[in-house]
Amino acid sequence: MKKKLQTCLWAAAALFLIALLYFVLMSWKVNYTWKHSQGTPSDCLIILGAAVWDGKPSPALRERLDIAVEAYRRGLAPNIIASGGKSESEPSEAETMQKYLMEKGVPKEAILLEDQSRSTMENLENSQKIMKEKGFHKAVIVTHGFHAYRASLMAKSLGISSTVEPVQIRPRALTYYTLRECGGIAVFTLGRIGNLLE
User: What is the pTM of this model?
Assistant: First the structure.
């Protein structure tokens, strides 16, 4: 009985150390990608959706939009894919983004709407369809810095040639967002492994 208990304790300690090592490594990757990523000239910008409040961009979505406007103005890409679906009570994230972008001087013809997605993976999958339809080969993903690493992993898994232009604003709950991303990366990675084994 005592030996069995010791084995269980050693196993628990090993799992804890593995988990700790994973979170330390992923936290470093999340923050490194955040601070060192930069978009390169491409065919389009893909703005990943975020919440809409009372028909207007939430602060988080506005931060992404402002980065996209800045990138567009300096000629990083001539087209913008606004990606984000609709909630029950609000207009779609894509429509809200289009309105904001036009108010900032981006011409309507430069904005392509993807208004069906409800997750980052769907953002990228549906945006990829638009890219293929338009003959675009390379994209710049616009999202928050803490989200950049996971978004880039997802884009790579789909075969999207991309770089990331991250929002550099530091969120108040930085630890929360970093740990959330580490968990999200683990779920995404395990899901990919599961698909490969099927």
Answer: 0.85
Strands 79-83 and 56-57: unpaired
Q: What is the pLDDT of residues 30-59, one digit of tens each?
A: 888 889 999 999 999 999 999 999 999 999
- CA distance to 108, 128, 136, per residue, from 44 (Å): 14, 11, 7
Contacts of 121 (CB under 8 A, 6+ apart): 154, 188
Tokens of 112: 């392509």
The alpha carbon dihedral of 85, 86, 90, 95 has a sign of: positive
Judge contact between 116 and 128, C-beta under 8 A.
no
Q: For tokens 């994230």, name the residue.
A: 93
- The 3 state secondary structure assigned to the chain is CHHHHHHHHHHHHHHHHHHHHHHHHHHHHHHHHHHHCCCCCCCEEEEECCCEECCEECHHHHHHHHHHHHHHHCCCCCEEEEECCCCCCCCCHHHHHHHHHHHCCCCHHHEEEECCCCCHHHHHHHHHHHHHHHCCCEEEEEEEHHHHHHHHHHHHHHCCEEEEEEECCCCCCHHHHHHHHHHHHHHHHHHHHHHHHC
Query: Strand 111-114 relative to strand 138-144: parallel, antiparallel, unpaired?
Result: unpaired
